[in-house]
């Protein structure tokens, strides 16, 4: 199978701005219908969260979504089983916290991801120094472990992160937790540009991107955007798959209006 | 990697590791803040001026050294020599002040303009509010809603001292969730605010730094035992364990002796005794969790022990077999608190009463043979727990 990174690069290099909506696994009985709807609405990849009891990097919306999913009995195995049955042709990136990824050992976890067709992994509380063995386990299973970069990350470290990250680099747009914001953070553009200065890997901005206009603004400097809380709030408020898809289509349309990076821009 | 903690009790652990535990499992946005604290503390700790400022505050302001009190009647009743390290007599009423004065001085030295803290029983919150008032730094304390209710006395003390108390409504609404919320808030204010962690938990350098700041308990007790005990050192050193800071401080003074080290956890929050390896709040250690790896909620009458994990150094000491971790139930702890009140005229915090409860249960058995000596850290005073003790005793019996 073509790797996550290869697929994302191909699309990016064709001038497309990339869109990765986030969905908490198991949040509703029909969550895989939402998954399919997001795929059909123009997602380039989908981030699926495996809910953790103590999500320390998440704001209220994703905390609530995690609680709801856990109360419904969501488990790692259950979510992966749903994913392998759902067979969408958009790559899936699983995100979860270190305790769940390491519970049965990173090797077993990464093999289970691969068996379910998952192509990427995000573990926010595994920074560079702690990501070594999970990175190796992911590589062995052909899963791309994407690392986070933040506005506070100094230059040298940013280079190391970009180098060790696989699939893409997750640029955390602001110093804060996930959750909707009124505006795109002022720190977003600078971080995306700094990353593009040190890597050719796709750079996704995430955290706080809540509207089509914000997505378009973020995509001027990044290769793609990740939209989580804004989508999950709609879902928690009772949106059906058709309306979550509608929101994702509005994001897609906004991104399609952003001019592609020119060759001169690329990588610099 | 063998016994780092044993070879040199004061050395900074490499990469923040205590054997397989510890580390720095925080999201990337918090890494620079952790590194900043690590560098600043290492420099400060090596600076005689900083150490002198801290020593001055500990003696002139916080009332150190705290006494080592022989519990004479209790000793006679139990048939073992019980020595109480009186952290209840330190300013603010618990050992938490030792840690907080060090970290608040560090925050000021780093140019930080405000302090953040999590709290369970409220003693760390009160200590932080106190240090903030003393040094002119505004304080925000995160506290689980359940603890806000059951430790109302301390909530008022924090507000009286000028601190802002933020009730946390997520999860079990206790210390675990207060810590999560403090970390969430910290990410957004790392430039201006210093996160003053209350126990030997969190990402490197906190478990090491907090142990260094609490080691004063063990150092003083070691000298005091040398004066008071014919054998010079106690045969047993016992302390209650929430995150494990008062125990880490006491153990630090005796880890290189032959004393047996015993940590007593709440039966409903026994991370060290019953936990499994995992990652939470920035460190790898032992946590209560289910099959899936979801963290279990702790439950204890002692809000300060109501935590599903334990500091990484304790997990390591357990791995090494150098310290043992046992539990006491709510009922045993409450009974021990009443017994100490009546035998010695000292009302302990329910947290501290867990350590006494084990001593009472073990005395005269092979665990704690008749005639042996035991040093118990009395980590705090029981004023905050008066309402709980009233309910426990019932109105009639208290008269
Ligand atoms: C009096 C007292 N003892 C013990 C503890 C538990 O903390 P640690 O295990 O870090 O000493 C607390 C925490 O709130 C406390 O207030």
Automatic annotation (TrEMBL), chain A:
Which CDD domains does this UniProt record tie to the protein?
Answer: Tryptophan_synthase_alpha (cd04724)
Question: What parts of the sequence cross the membrane?
Answer: none
Pfam families for this protein: Trp_syntA
Per the UniProt entry, the Enzyme Commission number(s) are: 4.2.1.20
Asked if the record carries the keyword Amino-acid biosynthesis, the reply is: yes
Pathway field: Amino-acid biosynthesis; L-tryptophan biosynthesis; L-tryptophan from chorismate: step 5/5
Q: Which reaction does it catalyse?
A: (1S,2R)-1-C-(indol-3-yl)glycerol 3-phosphate + L-serine = D-glyceraldehyde 3-phosphate + L-tryptophan + H2O
Alphabetized GO MF terms: tryptophan synthase activity
- Tell me which residues this entry annotates as catalytic: 47 (proton acceptor), 58 (proton acceptor)
What family does the database annotate? Belongs to the TrpA family.
Q: How does it assemble?
A: Tetramer of two alpha and two beta chains.
- Sum up the protein's function in the record's words: The alpha subunit is responsible for the aldol cleavage of indoleglycerol phosphate to indole and glyceraldehyde 3-phosphate.
Name the HAMAP family for this protein. Trp_synth_alpha
Q: Report the protein name in the record.
A: Tryptophan synthase alpha chain
- List the lineage, top down: Bacteria, Bacillati, Actinomycetota, Actinomycetes, Micromonosporales
From TrEMBL, chain B:
Mind telling me which InterPro entries this protein's record contains? Trp_synth_b_CS, Trp_synth_beta, Trp_synth_beta/beta-like, TrpB-like_PALP, TrpB-like_PALP_sf
Its UniProt pathway annotation is: Amino-acid biosynthesis; L-tryptophan biosynthesis; L-tryptophan from chorismate: step 5/5
Name of the protein in question: Tryptophan synthase beta chain
- Family annotation (PROSITE patterns): TRP_SYNTHASE_BETA
Alphabetized Pfam families for the sequence: PALP
What EC identifiers does the entry list? 4.2.1.20
UniProt record similarity statement = Belongs to the TrpB family.
Summarizing the function annotation, the protein's role is: The beta subunit is responsible for the synthesis of L-tryptophan from indole and L-serine.
Q: Which PANTHER family match?
A: TRYPTOPHAN SYNTHASE, TRYPTOPHAN SYNTHASE-RELATED
Names of required cofactors:
pyridoxal 5'-phosphate
Annotated positions of the N6-(pyridoxal phosphate)lysine modification? 96
